[in-house]
Fold each of these.
Amino acid sequence: MFDFLKKLFGWSTPAPPVKHPTPAASSPPTPVASSPPTPVASAPRSDIHEPKPAPPPAAAPQTAPAAANGATRYVIVGAGPAGVIAAETIRKLDGDGDVLVIHGDDGPPYSRMAIPYFLSGHIDEAGTHLRKAKGFYDDRRIRVQHGRVEGVAPSDGRLTLAGNQVVPFDRLLIATGSSPIRPPIEGSDLPGVHTCWTMADAANIVRLAEAGSHVVLLGAGFIGSIILESLVERRVNLTVVELGDRMVPRMMNATAGSMLKRWCESKGVNVRTSTSITRIERARDAADNRDTLAVELSDGHKLPAHLVIIAAGVSANMGFLNGSGIKTDAGILADSHLRTNHSNIFAAGDVAQGPDFSTGGYSVHAVQPTAADHGRIAAINMTGGSASFKGSLIMNVLDTVGLVSCSFGNWQGVDGGEQAERVDEAGFRYANLQFADDRLIGAITLGRTDWVGVLRGLIQTEVPLGPWKEMLMADPHRIAEAFIARVGA
Ligand SMILES: Cc1cc2nc3c(=O)[nH]c(=O)nc-3n(C[C@H](O)[C@H](O)[C@H](O)COP(=O)(O)OP(=O)(O)OC[C@H]3O[C@@H](n4cnc5c(N)ncnc54)[C@H](O)[C@@H]3O)c2cc1C
């Protein structure tokens, strides 16, 4: 399964070469990854899956200072997948440009998506690095500098790092990603309470999540459910607390979310839906004379915990743009070229609110495939090419203790649409297809890995299904046949 997900996400794979003015790198978002932007569970998520009908910002022409040697100064803030892919793409397209990537985390650029595999011991720390070859960045004359950006002055073509270092730029990409939300729960700042977002978080979790430890995970959304798998592999005594009435409520309907809950329970996980944490306090484990926590739930229960993990949603990292004039909403507003309202400033990845394939509006889709697409397309446009982004398709693939669940596009359906459903409760298999007229617009599956490409293809091509619509209404399991008939083998 690990290999299946790696392949699906193209994770750790360098971006394919891009030819200069590629007219439409717009291809719908790549292979989309695993889950989504799912706002996790319990807390307010302003970020993901929330289509915002914001209009593309109009870019105001800006004059940028020229570099002393005439080379274009490209500055990329953020060394996640969006930033690293953008840097690589720029280097391929502009051999002379000066490429600087600013990384706000410790260590080499890494993939947050790899953290669960680090937690479960499938990979070591080096395995999380986005690019593993020794000298990868130096060989490509990509400078990676550690630092935190605190301000951007678009008209001056400058940004400021903590410590007041000023960095000039001709073209700027903001790819600062997102950060986990910490709900205002009393005691959530105690030692033993962690988010799961950075390698530092991962190290804390590895230290505390020993076999047999009591762990409470707040949030059964996308990220929470991924972490859940790793914790099960660490053989902890796990309780998941989810405010919604089912698991992954932003990715699964009631039938699928409830089946997933039942599956997790069958694997020994205590799942408490429609529940929240009201308070966390210090306690002492008399048995092993160890500091612990007592976690108070909204249903009155109190749970012991050596570790509490908060996975309650994320929000875009854009506070340093206050006063910059760069337009933001749930993320930085970016048009189909991933350009902000300043013509030489671009945004990509979790921090960007870019085109949304499913709604035709502008959304933050905080998933790695979208970050990769954004980074590539922004880089083409930064180097003077013209590539437009057709929009990211919501596509979430999740492996929860061996059960793979997927949701695509408008999985909740649309007004006036129709749906087809097949439920196999005992076998933990489920298929739900959503149609608008005779087009497939969304789907949910459980217990299947073989339909990912087919469903994505049918949704993204928006191909009319013709007579296949009625055949799929009668038997949604014929989806692969429909794909071959309408899209081609
Ligand atoms: C545990 C976990 C599991 C995940 N699993 C999946 C999955 O299975 N599938 C999937 O599609 N997605 C998954 N994701 C989400 C995925 O990791 C993100 O969508 C992706 O990392 C976004 O890439 P990005 O480049 O936009 O931002 P990030 O990867 O978050 O990188 C942001 C960069 O910006 C830097 N930065 C932030 N603020 C500043 C600042 N002020 N100054 C300088 N630098 C700054 C950071 O240090 C970092 O270098 C997972 C995330 C987590 C945490």
Note: The chain has three domains: 15-180+314-382, 193-310, 410-486.
Amino acid sequence: MDHNTQQETTHKPVKRKEMSRRQFLSYTLGGATAFMAGGAILPMLRFAVDPILVKKQKGSFVKAIEESKVTNEPQQVDFKVHQVDGWYESDPKMQAWITKGEDGTIFALSPVCKHLGCTIGWSGEEAPNKYHCPCHGAQYDKNGKTLKVAPKSLDEYQVKTENGWVYLGPLVPNSRV
Ligand code: FES
């Protein structure tokens, strides 16, 4: 290698890879589009999955009646439950038959007949001292045990007492019969 060639090789300018105007425009437009799309899509995504992210109030209890007012005779008590179903929130009115058992424990029965879901009532001419369903004549005893027509006993609410009040929780299968 002669002296001149060697000089050319050593002083060769470094070739920089330059971005073409077209590439620059594509990157800029692509970035801006992705940013704007993200801004529009992310809130929608958050809105769509919101019910999944909301903490469910499992097993919450609702104040129903003063403990001192519960007797051995079943009493119909109305109460409201706050329900969240996806984006829809409601406070449906619920009902329970609350009684003090012979052992002194307070229990609450569901008023929904286990035959086809009509609303039962307590006592009356047709069934003295029994729960009676007006639809097809199902009968239950004071503990909710099925006596005729209905295939199962009445469900009961979970019950807890606190500071002189009776609180009702979720419905569970009857544990008294
Ligand atoms: S729904 Fe109660 S007896 Fe049929």
Note: The CA atoms of residues 3 and 9 lie 10 Å apart.
